[in-house]
């Protein structure tokens, strides 16, 4: 679907495999749960700017659309296996509140839900009662980083802060760097930055690379997730190029959206970004994570994302150190599905409030 001048051509309708992702195809077997706060891979240090890495990128849109259209019928995950996959998804959620009416108490309640995301009686009924389960992170504005760090103390759950003038990213560059540094000082272990979309729309790739390098440096030891705002980049080719350049500049994750655009995460844009992650890993040996965000609210949809991750990148990318899901209401729907699996009945959505 996507090719570059230095990489082998990839058949558009079938996922290729890399040596680092040589695993069996996705099956009904549920992936194991591991602690959500670990980053078990070497960080991506980036590479020098080289336009030959992305100049020749092309996207076969019709082939990509056909690949996505076949996804729902390719795998059937039911019953106990489905419950297992949904429990795994919980461990990858960046549980998020990014509203203008956020309060300290709302953030504290969200942190409590992150620590105990599923009712104990449901976990006991699923045979999971003795195992640790929590979300991948809590994601908040800078104002609430210190509050979240305190509320999560001892839980092993990292705090992610949205930064760099989220969501538009149009504040002065020096203020963006100061905001990152302030969030890191307050205890944020992960920083979700927004790129300047103008750099992509005008083809100013060196400016995008330099901006991302500055963000990476300002984060220090904190992991950095680059939000591309894919719904505002106009073309899938732009999405592919922006993905590659942000990784070249040292992004630890690439992320679809702020959740504030008219179009946010979709399986199609996910496929494009995953192919770029695979290309980058083949070139450099470094694994970069992926985070869909915005509009990911149904348990049935996250199963498709998980299957796509495994088919395109391999089993390692089902773990929270390489896969995160930016969501607020998704957790409530997953808990509803788990309750239905246990009891045979759906409960009202409001019984699973998270904030």
TrEMBL record:
Q: Which residues form the signal peptide?
A: 1-28
Q: In which pathway does it act?
A: Carbohydrate degradation; 2-deoxy-D-ribose 1-phosphate degradation; D-glyceraldehyde 3-phosphate and acetaldehyde from 2-deoxy-alpha-D-ribose 1-phosphate: step 2/2
Any one Gene Ontology biological process term? carbohydrate catabolic process
Matching PANTHER family: DEOXYRIBOSE-PHOSPHATE ALDOLASE
Keyword Nuclease in annotation:
no
* EC class name: lyase
Which keywords belong to this entry? Lyase, Schiff base, Signal
Similarity remark: Belongs to the DeoC/FbaB aldolase family. DeoC type 2 subfamily.
Gene3D superfamilies (alphabetical): Aldolase class I
EC number(s) stated in the UniProt entry for this protein: 4.1.2.4
Q: Cross-referenced SMART domains, in alphabetical order? A: DeoC (SM01133)
Q: What cellular-component terms does GO give this entry?
A: cytoplasm
- The protein, known as: Deoxyribose-phosphate aldolase
Q: Which reaction does it catalyse?
A: 2-deoxy-D-ribose 5-phosphate = D-glyceraldehyde 3-phosphate + acetaldehyde
Give the molecular function GO annotations. Answer: deoxyribose-phosphate aldolase activity
Tree of life domain:
Bacteria
